[in-house]
Amino acid sequence: MAKPCVFCAIVTGEAEAHVVLDEPAFLGFLDVRPVFKGHVLLVPRTHLGTLPDLPAEHRDGFLAAAQRIATAVKDGLGAQGSFVAINNTVSQSVPHLHLHVVPRTKGDGLRGFFWPRTTYADGEAASYAERLREALG
Ligand code: DGP
User: Fold this and answer.
1) Are 36 and 55 in contact (CB under 8 A)?
2) Residue 50: CB within 6 Å of ligand 1?
3) Residues linked to residue 26 through DSSP beta bridges, in sequence order
4) Is ligand 1 within 6 A of the CB of residue 87?
5) Measuring from atom 18 of ligand 1, which residue has the nearest CA?
6) Most CB atoms within 10 A, among 14, 44, 51, 128?
7) Do 96 and 5 form a contact (C-beta atoms < 8 A)?
8) Is 71 helix (H, G, I), strand (E, B) or coil?
9) Which stretch of DSSP H or E encloses residue 6?
């Protein structure tokens, strides 16, 4: 039997969470293991796995809710800004689409999530760009 989804349980109220945004299609609540205090997760109420699964009719609403939360961490918590991110499948520990809004302030010590950086060999960037343009149609 499939493992019950913890975020679905939060949406239905079976599991507790500190809800900060309650909309017909989306719910925003505090991450239980915040990067910084006030770190919010925004989820669609319907169980969806990843961003590509989000139906077109919910795209604007999802981004609008994310904007409101990003504004709220500034206005309500005094953050200077925020880091907004979605893990899709890789590094995604809960398989229910969720967007992170992490409050940020200069000097808070977060260093870009320790992303390693690489460089393109000669001509390689053009080839990557071409493959992406083709895939995007
Ligand atoms: P990710 O690694 O992008 O899949 O982030 C999942 C986040 O979900 C992680 O930061 C911790 C948080 N999380 C996991 N389980 C729970 C829970 O039961 N309640 C809450 N509020 N957050 C959870």
Assistant:
1) no
2) no
3) 44
4) yes
5) 6
6) 44
7) yes
8) helix
9) helix 6-12
* pTM (two decimals): 0.90
> What's the full length of the chain, in residues?
137
Asked if residue 128 lies in contact with residue 120, where contact means CB atoms within 8 angstroms, the answer is yes
36 C-beta closer than 6 A to ligand 1: no
- Torsion angle (degrees, nearest 10) of CA 25, 45, 11, 21: -40
Ligand 1 contacts CB of residue 119 (under 6 A): no
Given a contact cutoff of 8 angstroms between Cβ atoms, the answer to whether 80 and 107 are in contact is no
Tell me the pLDDT of the chain (137 aa) as tens digits.
567 899 999 999 999 999 999 999 999 999 998 889 889 999 999 999 999 999 999 999 999 999 999 999 888 888 999 999 999 999 999 999 999 999 899 998 887 666 666 798 999 988 888 888 887 78
